[in-house]
Known about the structure:
Blueprint: H1 2-22, H2 39-48, H3 69-76, E1 84-86, E2 104-110, E3 115-121, E4 131-133, H4 150-153, E5 154-155, E6 158-159, E7 171-179, H5 180-184, E8 194-195, H6 197-207, E9 216-220, H7 223-230, E10 238-239, H8 244-250, E11 254-257, H9 274-282, E12 286-289, H10 294-303, E13 307-312, E14 322-324, E15 328-330
Parallel strand pairs: 7-9, 8-10, 9-11, 11-12
Antiparallel strand pairs: 1-15, 2-3, 4-12, 4-14, 5-6, 7-13, 13-15
Amino acid sequence: MKMLTLLIRYICVNVLLIGLVACGTASHSTPETREPVTVEQFHQWMDELSNWGRWGDDDEMGAANLMTDAKRQEAAALIQTGTTVSLAHDFLTEEAVDAREPYVLQMSINPEGQNSGDRVEVYFHGITFSHLDGLCHVFYEDQVYNGHDYRDVVTQDGCSRMGTTAMKNGLVTRGVLIDMPLLKGLPYLEPGTKLYQEDIEAWEEHAGVTLGSGDALLLRTGRWAIRSEHGPTTEMSGWDASVMPFMAERDIALLGADSVHEAPDSVPGLGFNPIHRFAIVARGMNLLDNLDLEAAAETAAQLNRWEFMLVIAPLRVPGGTGSPVNPLAIF
Length: 331
């Protein structure tokens, strides 16, 4: 049924794109000849586009400050049908190349007491599980968000600042789904595909939405559709590092994706994930990794609406670096 749905979407989108080409409004191309972002340019953006001090030297919320009461009211006003869609993927139970540490479920069955229970063990960071990255999760030049030395923040006892409990009241805002395979007339993006600012702008024109301050940008690449058809893989597509100034200009509050955000080698020679460092350390943006956006994409296409109220309720883990989450899109 899922592959049939994808095929139908593929056919419909290709019909649409044929019409767009005829009208001269097809989506922008991404030429392979463009120069990649350099390490020097990345360092400059980390400094010049930083949110450090914007909400005070003691701030621990970062870009989540943009999710104001007014922003949440704006998000709530988007609810029309009341349809709720999970944006998380089921925990992977079998070891695979993209699940080196599948979750462990320890069952407790009590016939006398007529009940059962379970204990779950999971390392949620990485490419396997749907999770939220906190602001003490990654460092850049030995600093976390707002300029604190990570050695003063992160210890074996947990994070003394910007831990998961800082988000105990939840993250609620307007979510905007960018379905890039739909835009390009594909069931999914080929692994390694790089996405650029013009891809976002083409999607905005196609979907009739404009990303703005306090929004959550959620990217569908079709990662789980690829896995369903071809099996597990660690190769993914995602953003080129050149989109970072655009995200700062639009004042995006949160990034989500069904992948790990970065396209491979988008800053040659850097040695670590540039989108993670820029978003979390420089901008104070939380990230949602490894989402499952297939159902949300189908619902959005049916309703012809790619914006919705997004609700995230991380676990209240003292000193935690993030949390497994089941974000909800409410249409």
